[in-house]
Amino acid sequence: MRLSTVILPSRRWHEGGRDQWLRAEQLGFHTAYTYDHLSWRTFRDGPWFGAIPTLTAAAGVTERMRLGTLVTSPNFRHPVTLAKELISLDDISGGRITLGIGAGGNGFDATALGQEAWTPRERADRFAEFVPLLDRLLTEDAVSASGTFYSAEEARNIPGCVQRPRLPFAVAATGPRGLKLAARHGQAWVTTGDPKLFEAGTPEQSVEALRGQLAKLGKACEEIGRDAAPMEKVLLTGFTPDRPLDSFDAFVDFAGTHFALGFTELVVHMPIADSIFAADESVFEKIATEALDQLR
Predict the structure, then answer these.
(1) Residues whose CB falls within 8 Å of the CB of residue 73, separated by 6 or more in sequence, listed in order
(2) Tens digits of per-residue pLDDT, 59-74?
(3) Cα angle: 179, vertex 234, 105; to 5 degrees
(4) Which end of the chain is more exposed for a tag (fewer CB within 10 A), N or C?
(5) In the structure, what pLDDT confidence band is assigned to residue 284 with cuts at 50, 70 and 90?
(6) Cβ neighbours for 198, distance < 8 A, ≥ 6 positions apart
(7) Element (H, E) at 34
(8) Verdict on whether the full-model pTM lies above 0.90
(9) Rounded to whole angstroms, how far apart are CA atoms 256 and 263?
């Protein structure tokens, strides 16, 4: 059982940003992730910093905690340039990086470069090409590839990742094509639950939806001869009908239910006052330091 956190890149580094990453390590979180967006939802008109530079800075002030994106997408990334940044980040961190990666959505990232937002099918098509090429770029010294959406010409990535054969992928997916990518390329799978249940559903309905997603992941793994059991299963909380950060007991109940489902890592958002991620700091810190002991 692992407990991790998300730190949104919304504070200047020398005005509290650095302190958040240090505090996350002090609290004992397994991994501290950040969102890889150009801007995001209600934070669009406020401060928002780049994920890779933020993680690079975090790698310089932390020692043990893993770091990662949750998640990177093709919306404004290209596999060739992303691979170079990831190899550099993995080196700087001493091999502590996990790449959370997903197909992207219709948010602000989708049109920030001046293009029309891609349809769900176009996002799936691009994701299906993006992930295998990125996998090759992170494991081979030189890569040439000519795809419909992404190409590489003798792209060099020497010396490669510190982590071998490459840094781990945590693939966010719920649809059949994405789950196939997770089964083939992911060391972990990520979900936020069923978005249709967030506002109008019940916790019980959410649990059943997650059970169904886990079953589909198992089937996708079975189809390629992979055992899904050892694969890490990550639940990014905050997008289900539950309110696990309302109290310590609420979180322990939530965590027990979802670990029993088969999840191996729960991710909670570091509190941000006056936002959808507002939470009592003392409850959050007690959850970070004591909750897992209640479940062992």
Answers:
(1) 36, 101, 102, 103, 104, 105, 109, 127
(2) 999 999 999 999 999 9
(3) 55
(4) C
(5) very high
(6) 239, 240, 241
(7) strand 31-34
(8) yes
(9) 10
